[in-house]
Structure formats: structure tokens, C-alpha cells
Amino acid sequence: MNERNPRALRKQVAPYEKSDLQHSVMQIFNTILPFFVLWFLAYQSLSVSYLLTLGISVVAAGFLVRIFIIFHDCTHHSFFKNRKANRVLGTITGILTFFPYDQWGHEHAVHHATSSNLDKRGTGDLWMMTIDEYQEAPFWTKVAYRLYRNPFVMFIIGPIYVFGITNRFNRKGAKKKERMNTYFTNVMIVVIIALLCWAIGWQAFLLVQVPIFMISGSLGVWLFYIQHTFEDSYFEEDEHWEYVKAAVEGSSYYKLPKLLQWLTGNIGYHHVHHLSPRVPNYKLEEVHNNTEPLQNVPTITLATSLSSLKFRLYDEENKRFVGFNYLKKAARKNVSAHAKPEV
User: What is the pTM for the complete model shown?
Assistant: First the structure.
């Protein structure tokens, strides 16, 4: 990319950075209301078959992911033109998804400002080490990192830890407004859970809510993972880091079947979202289709995305992700290259 291209690209996308009130309201009705209906149906199905309950829970989890996308847009102030309206709806959808509005908004803004920057990792992103960092790390750090990058820990234990524990506490240095929003979110979550347990019993509540929570949480972590973890993803040290390159080359285009694309709120067009967070989710596909440079980006499908599970470390020298096996192969090559011939 030359110096003019980034400016021209941002200019092309700018006209889409306006929300459409009618479209936003429609999305509320076709997302939040069906979720409540599905939750109720899952509860009713307990008297029929728990397999039926689980089937309904899978669909409900998809709608909860879509609710999170609305929440996500609200934190970027892209769902409504009015900031207060974004805050009100963002707080409500944050309660439903177990995310404090202000806390996520802060951390996610940092993520956008530092994504793919090797010198500014650690806020709003997944723990990622380079090959050199891993090789130089203490033994227990290596153990912790291997556990963290294990798929079971990342996609099963991870959602429980993030949504259920870390989201309940304020970050260090949070201002009063942010702290109060976290407290309010926590109180409302407790109140809603208590009311549901009183109304239908705690066993029924858990039988319905746990699968919805786990499935949606795992899907959410997976989407975040695949959007920045692909073989030739862009990463640079701060000195050479460029925002537009980080957005276009460091964020994937996750090409999903239309139904999954709808349920995930077009977030597969993540390169568009990172280029301009003010574009509402329902315009991301339009931007991609009408902006030629954005069509020539790293594209991942459902099938090819599974290969990203093997990526564990970033190879700074070759600018790509590799697995732990890469270290073993590199070590064997190094030994062979330095081996002395037998006498």
C-alpha cells in the first residue's frame, strides 16, 4: 500500500458510517424478541425431551451471538446516531450477554487502536507470543501459555472465565462512570437470574441457560480468535505498524454461509469493521462488495478456518503463524546443520 491508498480507502468507506434508524429498530425486533421466544420454548420443551431443549438452545445461542453484535455496535456508537440511545441499548444487551457496556467499550477501543501491533499487546486481545518470546520464557510461563492456547481451555473454559468472572470486576484505573455501569450490570444479572430461578426453579433455569451460555460463549471466542489468527496475518512492531494495513491485512474476511452470516451479524467482514468501526453491522457486506480493494483480503471459509486451531506462535521472521511442532522441526534442522561428520 502506498501512502495515498490508505487515505483513499478510508474516504471510500466514509459514506457508510451512518446508521439507519429503521434498519436498527428492525434488527432489535428480529433479534432480541426471537431470543426471548426461543428461551421460553426451550423451557417449555423440558417436559417433552431434553434433546429438544438442547436443539432449541443451539438456535437461541445463535440469536444471543447476534444480540452481542448489536451490543458491540452500540459500544462503537454505530448502531444509533444518538450516543445516549447507544448507551441505553448497549447496557441492556450487555446485561443479556454478561458484558459491562463501558468496560468492554474501553477495552475494545484499545483493541482497535493496537490490533496487530507487536509492542502494544495485552488489552482486549488473545494472549499471543512470538517464537522468540516463547523460547526465552521461563518454564512455567511456557506451561501456562500452552494451557491457554489449548482449544478446550480457550473455547470451553475461556468463556466461563471471561463472561462469568473477569467481566464482573472493574479494570484497574476505571473511572466512576465505568465502575458504576459494571456494578449496575452485575446487579441486574443477579436480579434476573434470581427472578427466573424463583419463577421456574433453579434446575430448569440451569438446564436452559447453561447450554445457551456455553454455546454462544464458545462461538463468540471462536469468532474473535479466527478474525485475527490466520496463517499470514499482519503483525508489526510499533515503529512499522500501520492502522489501515492492520485492519485490511490483520483482520480476516470470514466467508460464512448466509444463515450463519446473518446470525453473526456480518462480523465475518471483520476487515471492514476494523477499517471503520463506525459502519453498522448491517452495512459491512455492502462496503465489502462496493469497495474493490477490500475484496482482495485474506479470505477464510468454514473448512479452512479449522486449520487455524494449530496456530500457536507468531513467526516474526517469516511473518506468519506456526504451531508448536514448528519448533521441533526447526530444532531438528538446526541439529542436522551443526552435526559433525563421523570419522
Answer: 0.92
